[in-house]
Write a structure and sequence with these properties.
The chain has 465 residues and is an alpha/beta fold. The chain folds into three domains: 122 residues, 3-Layer(aba) Sandwich (Rossmann fold), CATH 3.40.50.620; 117 residues, Serine Threonine Protein Phosphatase 5, Tetratricopeptide repeat (Alpha Horseshoe); 169 residues, DNA Cyclobutane Dipyrimidine Photolyase, subunit A, domain 3. It has 20 helices and six strands. It has a six-stranded mixed beta sheet, with helices on both faces. The longest helix is centred in the middle third of the chain and has 20 residues. The chain is globular, with a radius of gyration of 24 Å. Bound molecules: flavin-adenine dinucleotide.
Length: 465
């Protein structure tokens, strides 16, 4: 057992299960301190995340305490400036799990070099992923650009590898503190009223993530293939914010699905596969984090229209399914996948606004925001991503509503102004023409664009590239 202190850098891995860095640190050291680095600037455009992170730190601190491990939160301008100060300290070894974003992985290499030079013991572990992305490539060594063959290979590789059994964290002898000038998790949580309601919908934490997974596999996974499309019912797992913050490892999800072997499990696991695919894409093609994966879209004639953009953000477009989605996002920090596709398509195709504006808004509002899924999701919708929906396939928000929210229950939940509108008109309230039920333009906006005209305009714009 080393006399040094074991430090563990916690990033998006607020869990005890399958946390290799924590296991190794507690195996090697009697005294372990975990730390979280809070970069205020990073969270400026990820407001919703502050709420989740603050609550997660609170919960994880308690859990780690039971193992005599403290969790210290340090505010820093940059990771680099924090580690420059840390290099000056002695008597510690350091451990962390990978975060699969190009900047983090680049930083891992820089840190490795510096820790080597300073002769400080460090170890980096596999993070929250099934396969290391470098392991899943075509026979010719190039990365996959299409999901289906990617996933066929990735699944095979994962199954053949048989990941090691989960090792338990050991209890440390004594709880100590290591850093000065720490802050509390409460200092991260914002005073904004906006996410006061999030607590009504979510309880961040590992225990809850594991319970949610169990309940989903027991009661819902069998119907997942169908019910995942209907935003009015809870047909999906709603695990995304927990996965994002590492409160559950995707290997745990895989194991639970395999143990139960129910219908629907392979469809569900394939969605985890999309997450793997997106992480592979952003790491092999990092240019897509800044712009279009497909370069021909660099010439696309996007329009700047702040009136349209604001109406979209506020859920005031006059298209009920779009507005319901945007209001669900604002109120709960989450939006159903089907509706993410509908609102996304509406922004880039009906309003001709650059997908980057949508990506930015989602980044700020989503509790499950992660670079890989958000950027890829948006480029899938816009048609400029790898294996994306073709641009010319334009979602009709009326038909999408009628198909996936037949009785308008989802719409009525999030747009209560439409609660008395008969089903026949719920996805096209402008046809109702009964002011006793709905005063269009007063109770609820008139459509900001006409669907058919917008569709033609979008197709013409597409011809330009
Ligand atoms: C425009 C757009 C933006 C998106 N932004 C994000 C984002 O920032 N973060 C995020 O996690 N997902 C994002 N998604 C993907 C998807 O909408 C969410 O993962 C899903 O809605 C989360 O709900 P769930 O946990 O109930 O999903 P489930 O259906 O229960 O799926 C289980 C898990 O699989 C993964 N998953 C499911 N669908 C997808 C998908 N289409 N692509 C990649 N992974 C998927 C998620 O980790 C999810 O938690 C985006 C999709 C679109 C169209």
């Amino acid at each position: 057992m080393s006399k040094n202190i074991g430090l563990v850098w916690i990033k998006d891995d607020f869990r005890l299960q399958k946390n290799l860095a924590l296991v190794e640190a507690t195996k090697n050291h009697d005294q372990v301190v975990a730390f979280f680095l809070y970069k205020r600037k990073k969270f400026e455009d990820q407001e919703a995340q502050k709420w989740w992170v603050s609550k997660s730190l609170q919960e994880f601190k308690k859990k780690l305490s039971e193992y005599n491990i403290s969790l210290e939160v340090i505010e820093t301008e940059t990771y680099k400036s924090f580690f420059e100060k840390l290099f000056k300290k002695k008597n510690f070894s350091i451990y962390w799990n990978k975060t699969y974003e190009p900047n983090y992985l680049k930083f891992d290499s820089l840190l490795s070099k510096n820790f080597d030079i300073k002769k400080i013991k460090f170890k980096i572990f596999k993070g929250n992923i099934l396969n290391e992305f470098e392991d899943v490539k075509k026979n010719d060594g190039t990365p996959f650009k299409v999901f289906t063959p990617f996933w066929r290979n990735a699944e095979k590789i994962y199954i053949e590898k048989i990941p090691p059994k989960d090792k338990k964290i050991s209890k440390c002898i004594k709880k100590i503190s290591f850093f000065r000038d720490t802050i509390t998790e409460k200092q991260i949580d914002s005073k904004k009223k906006w996410y006061k309601k999030f607590g009504k919908y979510w309880v961040p934490g590992e225990e809850n993530a594991l319970n949610e997974l169990k309940k989903f596999v027991k009661d819902k996974i069998e119907n997942y293939s169908d019910s995942r499309n209907f935003p009015n019912i809870i047909g999906t797992s709603k695990l995304s914010p927990f996965i994002k913050h590492g409160q559950i490892h995707v290997e745990t999800i895989w194991d639970e699905c395999n143990r139960n072997r129910k219908n629907g499990a392979s469809k569900f696991i394939a969605e985890i596969g999309w997450r793997e695919f997106n992480h592979s894409l952003i790491n092999f093609f990092p240019h897509m984090l800044k712009g279009n994966y497909s370069k021909k879209f660099d010439k696309f004639p996007w329009q700047k229209n702040s009136k349209f953009l604001n109406a979209w953000k506020k859920g005031l477009t006059g298209y009920p399914i779009v507005d319901a989605g945007m209001r669900e996002l604002y109120s709960t920090g989450w939006m159903h996948n089907r509706v993410r596709m509908i609102v996304g398509s509406f922004l880039v195709k009906h309003l001709l606004i650059n997908w980057k504006e949508g990506e930015k808004h989602f980044r700020n509002c989503l509790l499950d925001f992660n670079e890989a899924n958000n950027v890829s999701g948006w480029q899938w919708v816009a048609g400029c991503g790898a294996d994306a929906a073709p641009y010319f396939r334009i979602f009709n928000p009326i038909l999408q509503g009628e198909k996936f929210d037949k009785e308008g229950k989802y719409v009525k939940k999030w747009v209560p102004q439409l609660k008395d509108v008969p089903i026949k008109f719920i996805h096209k309230p402008w046809e109702l023409k009964n002011e006793n039920i709905l005063k269009l333009g007063k109770d609820y906006p008139k459509p900001i664009v006409n669907h058919e005209e917008a569709r033609k305009k979008a197709l013409n714009a597409f011809k330009k590239i």
